[in-house]
Amino acid sequence: MLQRGLFVGLKTTWTLGKVIFPITIIVTLLQYSPALPWVTNVLTPMMRWIGLPGDAALVLVLGNFLNLYAGIGAMLTMDLTVKEAFILAVMLSFSHNMLVESAVAAQVGVRVWWTVAVRVGLAFTSAWLIHVLWDGGEQMAKYGFMPQSSTTPHTWGEIIWTGVEKAIYGIGQLALIIIPLMIAIQVLKELKWLDTFSTWLSPFTRMLGIRENASLTMAAGLLFGLAYGAGVMIQAVKEDGVSKKDLTLTFLFLVACHAVVEDTLLFVPLGIPVWPLLVIRLTTAILLTATLSFIWNRMEQRKRKEATYEY
């Protein structure tokens, strides 16, 4: 079991590295070319209202159109304050891997435009609120064990080596998180502890207005991610008769907060406070889901009353 977990961890690290390594080198090269400074100048006025520099737009594009790892790879090349890095982390937590995860939403039966609108809306609203409400975080972010370059690279060879060095250190630090995490997840899967966790979640899902037969989906999505949660969700719809209401509410919760362990720990090497990141995601998911559940219940009550009067 541990051996299988180690294999999954190494495989995940390899998948992660294949994305982060080239992205980090490419973005490093762009930083020393005329292209990225020009894009930065164009985007700076738009990005300023959420407290980010213009080149941070590249992080959001890569994170949303590729995946979370690509966004983190781009962040490793940038000189960001703790506040800027935290804002980007929150935005990427809500909105990343949009193409793949929107396709997952479609398979489950949730409208793609609705999923995209919720995730992008959460990302930009949270960024603006953090920018306006948080006065601190002006110190420069320290990326874990990332070596601090004392000299500015002048030749293309030196620039490429700078990118390679950043990529290797970034992947190495993430591997220290990913491998033990994948071993732990493998243990959870093989010992069937997911079923136990879903039972613990049942009172919580009832509080949100979601029936108990959707708690396994919630547990899978919280622990393992949106794609895995959706797989369980599709099966649950077939076997357990999960209603459209419970399906929508569960997916709304998971859109705002999924893979809470992995997606949170991935940001540790960026030198940001990860506990507030987790709290923001979890609180947002609870408030959103509870609000929609309340509105949905009121609408159902109104329809029942109208049907009674007509009868």
TrEMBL record:
Pfam families: Gate. The lineage of its organism: Bacteria, Bacillati, Bacillota, Bacilli, Bacillales. Coiled coil: none annotated. This is Nucleoside recognition. It comes from Anoxybacillus pushchinoensis. InterPro entries: Gate_dom (IPR011642). The chain crosses the membrane at residues 12-36, 56-78, 85-106, 112-134, 167-188, 216-237, 249-268, 274-296. Keywords: Membrane, Transmembrane, Transmembrane helix. Residues 14-97, 173-261 form the Nucleoside transporter/FeoB GTPase Gate domain.
